[in-house]
Amino acid sequence: MLAIRLMRMGAKKRPSYRVIVKEQRSKRDGACLENVGTYDPTRNPAEVKLNLDRVRYWIARGAQPSATVDRLIKSQAKAQGAAETASEAAA
Asked: Which residue range is the domain that position 81 belongs to?
């Protein structure tokens, strides 16, 4: 089974994460199928960059997002929807 989860990167006590698709039973920092975004919690506010098209593709193929990644996906989709609404109002 596939999972969409975080892979820790960065220096000691300065974490940053990649949002990746991988086999659910493999190691946290092991080989992955695809990198679909990044998450940097050390920034204020936290910086999230996701390729939502690829995330939706993998979810349609049966990948299960972890709880944290699910929260990031929802916040990113909400932010993207607000940006699209603002651009339509300006036009």
From this structure: 2-90
